[in-house]
Specification:
With 156 residues, the chain is an alpha+beta fold. The chain is built from 1 helix and 8 strands. It has one domain. The longest helix is centred in the first third of the chain and has 50 residues. The termini are far apart.
């Protein structure tokens, strides 16, 4: 009987000691996965800009869709808020970023558009709230409004 009690006590102590390391690993995994999602959106924007010509009529504009998957499961930290926001870059150009908050933490931002993209990125009616669990689909259109602009909207 004493062996069982001691075994349970040791197991509880080991679990309690390992919890901070497990939480750090979950946060790191969530950061990495959201970095991958921002890369996916960046590649979609780059492909749209490099393979198409901007036009002034949005209904005729080149377009593509991209899906953002919020990390979930045992290996990911719980996300309290996830949004696509517009950010200021050098000069008058603007870009986009994923802004998220892991429960109980501070806001974190992962930039999406690099300096290599020759178009301005505009988040229409932004910031765009994204699902913190599951998938959110975005529509990207390349329009000409005094220069090439990639307009991003959420598909419901």
């Amino acid at each position: 009987m004493i062996r069982v009690v001691l075994t349970v006590l040791v197991a509880v102590a080991l679990l309690a000691a390992s919890m901070p390391a497990l939480e750090d690993a979950r946060v790191s995994t969530t950061d990495d996965r959201l970095g991958t999602e921002s890369d996916r959106v960046e590649r979609a924007i780059g492909g749209l800009v490099s393979g198409s010509m901007s036009v002034s009529d949005p209904s005729l504009a080149a377009r593509t869709t991209v899906t953002i998957r919020a990390p979930a499961g045992v290996t990911a930290a719980r996300i309290g808020r996830l949004a696509l926001v517009e950010t200021e870059q050098s000069g008058n150009e603007s870009g986009a970023a994923l802004r998220y908050r892991i429960d109980g933490g501070r806001d974190r931002t992962v930039p999406i558009v690099s300096d290599a993209v020759t178009a301005t990125v505009e988040v229409v009616d932004g910031p765009i709230a994204l699902r913190t669990r599951g998938e959110s689909r975005l529509d990207l259109r390349l329009v000409d409004d005094g220069g090439p602009i990639v307009r991003i909207t959420r598909i419901e």
